[in-house]
Amino acid sequence: MLRRLIGSVIVMWAVATLVFFMLRFVPGDPVAAMLADAGGPDDIAAMKRQLGLDRSLFVQYAIWFRNMLQGDLGASIYGSRAAVTDVLAEAIPRTLSLSLLAFVIALIIAVPAGILSATRRNSATDTTVSLLAFLGLSMPDFWLAILLIIVFAANLQWLPAIGYAPLSDGLWPWLSHLILPAIAIGTAFSAIIARMIRSSLLEVLKSDYMRTARAKGLTPWMVMFGHALPNAMIPVITVIGIAFALLISGAVVVENVFAIKGLGRVLIEGILNRDYPVVQGAVLVVSAIFVFSNLIVDLLYGVIDPRIRLN
Fold first, then answer.
1. What backbone phi and psi angles, to 5 degrees, belong to 54?
2. 9-32 pLDDT, tens per residue?
């Protein structure tokens, strides 16, 4: 645990450092873009001194890294000059809410579909599930999002088309604003997980100990959920962990379609505005989500298969 935690911290540091220096080599001057035609060379130089951008890259990095260790991610250099922690504190709950709901929807669809497809191999049910899975993989998130808005928001007027309501406004306002974007994001991932469950279950169902379980007179329900599914979950857990992390990054486009100012939208706006502190803070959060998702997956291996704890 300790070794993996240390490795996770090192990965986050490496990603943050890489982003810090790569941003500085992107063409364009953030201060010139911020001032536009409102200031001359002297104004630009004064603003750079004020923001600390006139110092060498390594001095800027040392100051940023020291402040980051103290929990200070700096302030936005664009617009209201808000603290980056405040910007992220507003955006993270929106993205996590959307991603968690999309994740739940994906599992609700994928687990029954994968089990049904594996237990009825080469049947009409298996073919239908496979076709639906390929269809789900083929549909771009933004296209499905637009279709959902047209049908359920514009025509039927069952759900809101844009925006976000915090949970403090009530469960239904919060949920109603997330259902459509969560379906748009979760559909493709449900197809990936369903195919993985099917493939893994088919391998397990052919094994000797499964034939022994049936010969002992166990019911199909006990064979499937007591023996087959737990043993088939190791590769599935890996895919699920990666899928959850990818849901965070996959929410970028859908957040823009539904006008949800989450982490993805904050990151895109920061890149377009060359807002170094915001981009660095957002990438740090995204990398933390990826790293710790993989860490949780590693820990779940030992829960599902106790033999892994001995390794």
1. -90, -5
2. 888 888 888 888 888 887 766 776
C-alpha span between 235 and 301 (Å, rounded)? 9
**Residue 288 forms beta bridges with which residues?**
none
Q: Is residue 163 predicted with pLDDT exceeding 50?
A: yes
Helices (H), 171-306: 171-205, 208-215, 220-222, 229-257, 263-272, 276-304
Query: For 103-124, how does the pLDDT look when each residue is reduced to its tens digit (9 = 90+)?
Result: 888 888 888 888 888 888 778 8
Maximum distance among all Cα pairs of the chain, rounded to whole angstroms: 86
Task: Give per-residue pLDDT as tens, 39-60.
Answer: 667 766 777 777 777 788 888 8
Q: Read off the tokens for 89.
A: 């504190």
Note the pLDDT of residue 310.
46
DSSP string, 193-226: HHHHHHHHHHHHHTSHHHHHHHHTT--HHHIIII
Residue pointed to by tokens 């993270």 = 92
* DSSP string for 128-140: HHHHHHHHHHHS-
pLDDT number for residue 40? 66
Region for residue 281 given its phi and psi (left: phi exceeds 0; alpha: psi -120 to 50; beta: otherwise): alpha
Give the three-state DSSP class for 122.
coil
| pTM to 2 decimal places | 0.78
The alpha-carbon radius of gyration of the chain (Å, integer) is: 24
Size of the chain, expressed as the number of residues it contains: 311
Contact of 261 with 94, CB cutoff 8 Å: yes
The whole-number average pLDDT for the span 204-231 is 76
pLDDT for the residue 309: 56
Q: How many CA atoms lie within 13 A of 240 on its CB side?
A: 22
10 Å CB burial of residue 25 (0-12, 13-18, 19+) is: exposed
Query: By the 8 A CB rule, do 166 and 261 touch?
Result: no
CA–CA distance, 227 with 216 (Å, rounded to integer): 13
